[in-house]
Amino acid sequence: MLDTEFKNKTKNLNETFQDISFWKSFSPNLDIEKGLPNKVINISKKKGENLRADILDNGFIHLNQPGLVNQTQEINKTIMSLVRIGLPPVFIFVYDEPWKIQYQIKNIVKKLIGGNYKLLPAFWAWHVEQGESGWKEHRDRPVSMFDDNSPKSLTLWVPLTNALPENSCMYMLPANKDRHYGEKNPPDLSHGFPGNLSDIQALPAKPNDVLIWTQKVVHWGSTSSSSHSLGPRISLAYEFQRDDVEPFQRPLIDPNSLPTYKERLQLIGRQIIQYTHMYGFNQNLVDLAKLMLKVK
Question: Which one of 54, 139, 176, 288 is most buried, counting C-beta atoms within 10 A?
């Protein structure tokens, strides 16, 4: 049952969602259209070469505490407030902070993807409670590799809380254990799991670790145990593609600049509509998303 304060906040959501003050009421400490950070994580040429070799072999890398700087606790607090009133956590992308996270990792992404890149209009945020699950096993974009099996696109996943087997961490089937990974168009997973169960790797992670994988690697978020006391697993994900290949989705987004406030509303509306089939969002939320797409 929602308390009176939160009921009042969303009573006229269709009329108020364009008002920046509505979102600032959730978190006066997060920014909207204040600019990107000066902080960028740098890596040496040798380190970049090693990471690229790892992702080409395994299909993923896990960077332990690479040096992300963000308002983790405030982002988590805001996501929990959004969830409390029935809004999906993807609305956190109204604020600057999630966009600042991907910006800090741009030098790493560029090394891994082998060139300049753009952000795809495909991002999400999770708040996985006890007894809930992350997304089931899947490939993000099965046809997303060059002929030499180097990636045209990548997924970036950042936990903002501890992500452990008990409260839903990521699981991967390494590319070199996937019998269909080298195929141009691998069969759908409904035809069978493409590896041995003993080859699966759990990837427990701490807040502000960074996981990056090719969009062909098989992965999933496990079910959060109903008996743990760790709190929800909160995380963010982004997708990137090389800017010298045909766009997988439009509009592509410049990772070196912040989308405007109105552009963010449009993008968030797009995410809600494209993932409604997975979450069964109610009609009121779908209608709101359609309004957001029309913001000018």
Answer: 139
